[in-house]
Amino acid sequence: MQWHSLHNIEEPETRCPETPAIYIITLPARGSIPRFLQQDGDCIVTIGSTKNMNQRRKQFLMGLKCLEGHSAGNLFNIINTACELKIRAAEFRLDYREHVTKEEAFAAESELTAEYMLRYGEAPPFNSIIPNRKDAVFWKAKVETMFHSPTHTASLEEWRLQTRRVA
């Protein structure tokens, strides 16, 4: 499956598919974000999944603008206002990959979020939930494949390559 990118998520003519998808929202102009274990050079602010990518993009924007949207956008609005960061919606980049079902998208979100957490020691800053947080079998398998499998291809690495990011 191919990743697609929107470099300015607020353009009115921008339209995403109305299908299930996994998505990663970044702030590329920030350079890097300090995390618990190491700097996040990709500046990932949230990883998520949805049953309708176009609707989720609009919900994120509503949160950014007026605190009446998706939780990641709402959270950013609060921090942006309180800290006077002056980050505009146009600075966010949205990368998404379509899936056939919401369940497939959620499974992909779980994989990406787990990989991020194991790499950086915490979830992305605007993720309000951690998928599979109580599933010990999932986490043991993720650690095994990520750190002990010579053939493991990381999902975040696939995303970097397809969106032409340098790790």
3D structure, described in words:
This protein has 167 residues and is an alpha+beta fold. The protein is built from five helices and four strands, in the order βββααβααα. It has a four-stranded antiparallel sheet with strand order 1-4-2-3, sandwiched between helices. α3 (102-120) crosses α4 (136-148). The two termini are 21 Å apart.
A few lines on this structure:
This protein is α+β, with helices and mostly antiparallel strands. Helix content is 40%, strand content 13%. It has a 4-stranded antiparallel beta sheet with strand order 1-4-2-3, with helices on both faces.
| Residue share in β-strands | 5-15%
Q: List the domain count as a whole number.
A: 1
**SSE order, one letter for each helix or strand:** EEEHHEHHH
CATH architectural group: 3-Layer(aba) Sandwich
Supply the number of helical segments. Answer: 5
Give a quick account of the main beta sheet: strands, pairing sense, barrel closure: 4 strands, antiparallel
Report, as a whole number of angstroms, the end-to-end distance: 21 Å
CATH superfamily: GIY-YIG endonuclease
Q: What's the CATH first level?
A: Alpha Beta
Which ranges are low-confidence, i.e. pLDDT below 50, for 5 or more consecutive residues?
Answer: none
Quaternary arrangement of the chains shown?
Answer: single chain
Mean pLDDT: 86
Dominant shape? globular
Category by helix and strand content: alpha+beta
What would the CATH topology be?
GIY-YIG endonuclease
Count the E strands.
4
* Rg from alpha-carbon coordinates: 15 Å
Strand order of the largest sheet: 1-4-2-3
Helix fraction bin: 25-40%
